[in-house]
Specification:
This protein is 85% helix and 0% strand. It contains 8 helices and no strands.
Length: 222
């Protein structure tokens, strides 16, 4: 009985937290006049979600404000890049009538969405320098772990279709925060898998190197 109560308490607390950070996302986006606030606000929300997924609890508002300021300039530039590219793709899809060009645009749009899913989680997870590097890695993560991305698109599409069809008011309270939470969770699974695989490859290479050194009496061969 006590465990059931604790589970219910955890679920309701999580829902309230998502509603709270959704409100903060809207507030800080508006404080940044939209175009200056959407990037830093999204980065801050993703960073908060990342801490929750990793099992860390913290004061939400204080840390949201910290993350909002942390990569402000870079977040603004990246958001502008993705907003501009997204706008161009939407306009092209609505105006281009050639079937082959439309198919090409659909493929480009899919790759764009893959990159968009991973760009802010990459900013929150890795301490890499350079906007171009982060955008490049967002493409690589999206393509190399395509199965995770496809499941994400499918599950998210079904959930939001159901919400719009049956409970449209729900999206007002955590439409953005829930989406970014799913994005962050998916990206965290991908990052963890990639890091485990890299760790295994490193261990294998070290073992091979040690065996080669033993067989050559400690003499390293190139």
């Amino acid at each position: 009985m006590l465990k059931s109560v604790e589970k219910l308490n955890f679920i309701f607390t999580s829902i309230l937290n998502l509603v709270y950070v959704n409100f903060l996302w809207v507030l800080f986006t508006l404080l940044g006049l939209g175009v200056f606030g959407i990037g830093p606000s999204t980065y801050a929300l993703v960073s908060i979600c990342r801490q929750w997924i990793r099992g860390n609890s913290m004061p939400v508002f204080k840390n949201y404000w910290k993350y909002y300021k942390e990569n402000f300039k870079e977040s603004v530039i990246i958001s502008w890049i993705y907003l501009f590219v997204g706008f161009v793709l939407v306009v092209d899809l609505l105006t281009v009538t050639n079937w082959y060009l439309r198919m090409l645009l659909f493929i480009i749009s899919f790759i764009y969405l893959l990159s968009f899913v991973y760009i802010f989680p990459i900013m929150a997870h890795y301490n890499w320098n350079g906007i171009l590097l982060k955008i490049k890695m967002s493409f690589l993560f999206g393509i190399s772990c395509l199965q995770y991305s496809l499941v994400f698109f499918l599950v998210t599409g079904v959930i939001y279709w159901a919400a719009i069809s049956f409970f449209p008011g729900v999206l007002t309270f955590f439409g953005v925060s829930f989406l970014l939470f799913i994005i962050t969770w998916t990206a965290n699974q991908v990052f963890t898998r990639m890091e485990i695989e890299n760790s295994k490859e490193t261990n294998i290479n070290e073992n091979v190197k040690e065996n080669c050194d033993e067989e050559t009496n400690g003499i390293k061969v190139s």
